From TrEMBL:
PROSITE patterns: HTH_ARAC_FAMILY_2. This is AraC family transcriptional regulator. Pfam families: AraC_binding (PF02311), HTH_18 (PF12833). The keyword Membrane does not apply. The lineage of its organism: Bacteria, Pseudomonadati, Campylobacterota, Epsilonproteobacteria, Campylobacterales. Keywords: DNA-binding, Transcription, Transcription regulation. GO terms for molecular function: DNA-binding transcription factor activity; sequence-specific DNA binding.
Length: 271
């Protein structure tokens, strides 16, 4: 007996940002694009999922992720119809969810993965699709959509590595400035921020082209210049800025200011 081919589509004027297709269509699609952010799943059967230049053997238990305007297709492997859900979302609605999680975002952030192998998320998505076709109110459906996509984006849409590096650098640089009277080692920074010492060196070289130690020395010298302007003694300034002795202070001050502490201080003597 030939299987009945069907397609059901969920849409609601109260939820204009979402559309859901439930189908066992056997048609083959050419590579195409959508303006939506889309997620699909197979309930029965296998397909070949293509996204840009990659192809995946797409099976039950997997989720296909398609960013807006990505060239893709998803076609059955056999003549038997595969049963599937395909959800389409307005990227601006998605951006609203993303923005609630990542405050610095200035637009929709594309998903990095084409395919997810996550049993919990797969089950949650299946339940969400079933629920959208149910008789509950549109407000309840909206809440479930928000809950699911908040969870999805939190789990998988990490901030960019560059933004993370920028934030790590800013935190460490601020810490060094606030504690410039101390002699803070790389190992101490590593423990304080729970970061690999080689990573700390790399982000300082990338941001300022100097080492963390050199950055701390700069903070010490800047503080020393301020104290000398206030006519504090050279001995007091050296100790206050965390230098081991006056000779150590003199040597480093000359390197960074191209003048001795005494020469620098004399420029600010009031007649």
């Amino acid at each position: 007996m030939k299987k009945r081919i069907f397609t059901k589509i969920f849409n609601d004027k109260n939820l204009p940002f979402v559309e859901l297709r439930y189908s066992n269509n056997t048609k083959h699609y050419k590579n195409h694009i959508h303006n939506t952010f889309s997620i699909g799943m197979n309930l029965k059967g296998k397909t070949i999922y293509s996204n840009k230049t990659k192809k995946y053997e797409f099976d039950v238990g997997m989720l296909a992720i398609v960013n807006p305007k990505e060239v893709h297709s998803c076609n059955p492997v056999t003549k038997e119809p595969n049963l599937y859900y395909m959800l389409y979302l307005d990227p601006n609605w998605c951006y609203g969810i993303q923005k609630s999680i990542f405050k610095d975002l200035e637009g929709f952030k594309p998903f990095e993965e084409d395919v997810l192998y996550d049993e919990e998320i797969y089950t949650d998505f299946k339940n969400l699709c079933n629920l959208l076709f149910s008789e509950i109110s549109y407000k309840e459906k909206e809440q479930k959509l928000i809950q699911f996509f908040t969870k999805l984006f939190k789990l998988y849409m990490k901030e960019s590595e560059q933004k993370k590096e920028n934030k790590d650098f800013e935190k460490i640089a601020d810490y060094l400035e606030q504690n410039s009277t101390e002699n803070i080692s790389l190992e101490e920074l590593s423990k304080e921020f729970n970061l690999n010492p080689f990573y700390i060196i790399r982000i300082f070289k990338a941001q300022k082209n100097i080492t963390p130690h050199a950055y701390l020395l700069n903070m010490k010298i800047n503080r020393a210049k301020k104290l000398l302007k206030e006519q504090k003694s050279i001995t007091f300034t050296a100790l206050e800025c965390g230098f081991s002795d006056q000779s150590h202070f003199h040597r480093n001050f000359c390197k960074y200011v191209a003048a001795t502490p005494k020469e620098y201080k004399l420029n600010f003597v009031q007649d």
